[in-house]
Amino acid sequence: MKSEIVIIGAGGHAKVCIELLKAQGDLVAFCIGSADSSDTCLGVPVLKSDEHLTTLRREGYSKVFVAIGSNALRNRLAKTATDLGYELVNAFSPSAVISPSAKIGKGVAIMAGAVVNAEATIDDLCIINTGATVDHDCQIGRAAHIAPQSALAGNVHIGKESFVGIGTKIIPSICVGECVMIGAGSVVISNVDSKTTVVGVPAKAINII
Ligand SMILES: CC(C)(COP(=O)(O)OP(=O)(O)OC[C@H]1O[C@@H](n2cnc3c(N)ncnc32)[C@H](O)[C@@H]1OP(=O)(O)O)[C@@H](O)C(=O)NCCC(=O)NCCS
Fold first, then answer.
1. Ligand 1 pocket at CB < 6 A
2. Quick check: 33 and 18 in contact, CB under 8 A?
3. What is the pTM for the complete model shown?
4. How is the chain split into domains, by residue range?
5. Among the CATH numbers 3.20.20.80, 3.90.79.10, 2.60.120.200, 3.40.50.20, which is that of 2-89?
6. Does the pLDDT value for residue 119 go beyond 70?
7. CA 129 to ligand 1: nearest atom
8. What would the mean pLDDT of 30-37 be, rounded to a whole number?
9. Which 8-state DSSP code applies to residue 192?
């Protein structure tokens, strides 16, 4: 079995994740991109079809990191990979601060300067992006994305595949549903229903997805 990691994705988010994995001491073998991807991604060769996931598995690769920004697509491709027998690995920046009492799932990216505080739970496939803070007892659902410089106060719940836009603030004990989009710079002071887009200060719904 090969120990090198296969990255699904070959765009900007993949570049950041490759650097996180290398900083952890992992080796990255290939990125899997699409027909219009560049030939390399941060020096890593790009294979231009999802079919390579199957071929590489047969060749003995068993570790994968899904570096796709879209929450729904990241979740779907992770299922494809795990169904093929791949294991999802984590990518944590050495300059992230992660509480020893936090529970972190698989396939999670935690970027530079992010803070995850006591007894927070980060489910599989989440992105805790650059400089984001997730305070005590927060629960972040599967394949959610907390964008850079967002701040979640204590005991905030974020549903699966929800996106918290860059620079958002969320006050304590707020519940955000599933597949929610929170616009950049929002301040969330009340609960948000699933499949809603909210923006502004305070955040208000602008449409239903
Ligand atoms: C919320 C968001 C997804 C909406 O995008 P969209 O569906 O294309 O919406 P539009 O740009 O058509 O805007 C719709 C309305 O909401 C307003 N709006 C959009 N984003 C807003 C925001 N962040 N704050 C306040 N108002 C916002 C627009 O001004 C517009 O208002 P109007 O109808 O009065 O003109 C997007 O604006 C956004 O904030 N994305 C966050 C991106 C991000 O954080 N990326 C980080 C990647 S790591």
1. 129, 147-148, 165-166, 181, 183-185, 197, 199-200, 206
2. no
3. 0.97
4. 2-89, 92-198
5. 3.40.50.20
6. yes
7. 48
8. 97
9. B
Report how far apart, in Å, the C-alpha atoms of 37 and of each of 8, 10, 174, 196, 199 are: 12, 7, 39, 32, 32
pLDDT at 50 over 60: yes
Site of tokens 């007892």:
137
Instruction: Output the CA 205–ligand 1 centroid distance in Å.
Output: 11
Residue 71 has pLDDT above 80, yes or no: yes
136 flagged as catalytic: yes
CA-based nearest residue to 4, from 18, 16, 75, 15? 18
Closest CA to 143 of 166, 121, 127, 164: 127
